[in-house]
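Re-run with default settings, no changes from the original entry. Doing this only to confirm the output is reproducible before filing.
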Amino acid sequence: MKKLVLFFSAALLTTVISCRQDDDNFSTEDYQNLELINKASQKIADSANSTTVVEGDPIAPPKK
């Protein structure tokens, strides 16, 4: 009987007390910063894709 009570009390404690951390709530400032980072990374990606190579132009060797 004692083992049964200990088992159910342990089961109750594990369901009530969780190891999960609280979810992070982002502030409006965080959203604005993330939006700026996203726009900047998009501009970098666009500028990297806009480089055109004309056929016959030599490609510079990689720097060491």
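The chain is about 60% helix and 0% strand. The first helix runs from residue 2 to 16.
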